[in-house]
């Protein structure tokens, strides 16, 4: 391979390795900030400004890198996150290593590989010396893996200013790009009953756990796979001892919905759950924390443009919808958004997480050409 190829996978992989080897669990802000230092350092000497937004509520800092050109008009926003789901020390279990076409490491697929490709493509645009017609803003957030609580307002504000949004989340199933994602809701259910002795005075008690059983059945019945609606009761707690009728019970619920109207309907059903047991109260709190990302006309046109570029580079870009949420959910309702532009691989959030070396060059080139050609 000739060294004058600006998309030679070997040096790009070396850059990805440096990002991966700084572990960045969302709940370790000092680690996320260590990576933010390295990322910010990478823009030194480039025609760009880097703004650092101090983290709060136990999360790390966010970085906004803006090209020095094109900032007076709506341009391209690139969304990436620096945090991973893997706890500190996980790199001992999943060290950075190459095996054939696969490279392993915590967060390499979701999404340090893709974030690095977007950065590398930006460097290449700068190296060309002739700025493209649109300004480029790269936003690196610290809290995507927990639903982006401290970065959502920033993502939405930048998204509204942009003409296009490119999200460097990993590709799906063999390199597919994402043009739709389900909305995500999170809810907590609090049930209060009346305690009593289970042996001597059971009739005096009102079991919160028994009512939780009713609530779980009601929630489970809301699942509608044909419509793409999933309701999962993922955490339950309740009671104090086996010989006490339970006074309290609790559940955490995850909701996934494909459309805005489904979101309104299901969130309202969940928030209005009623107790079926006399003397027992049910209270539900929560909300949709990511709106559904539906394939809009603008998003479809952006996808067609990317597909044409991919064909020129020499690969077929297929699109898909997925059940997982991303920061693209926040921008898609009002700005043309294309997601899943990161590396191909498999095993997000697992102990075998990996990216494919063969996806580095084509996907870096795709990002680079998108920066160059979007108008």
TrEMBL record:
PROSITE patterns: ARGE_DAPE_CPG2_1 (PS00758). It comes from the Bacteria. Its cofactor is Zn(2+). The active site is at residues 83, 144. Pfam families: M20_dimer, Peptidase_M20. Residues 179-271 form the Peptidase M20 dimerisation domain. Keywords: Carboxypeptidase, Hydrolase, Metal-binding, Protease, Zinc. GO terms for molecular function: carboxypeptidase activity; metal ion binding. The keyword Transport does not apply. This is Carboxypeptidase. It comes from Bradyrhizobium valentinum.
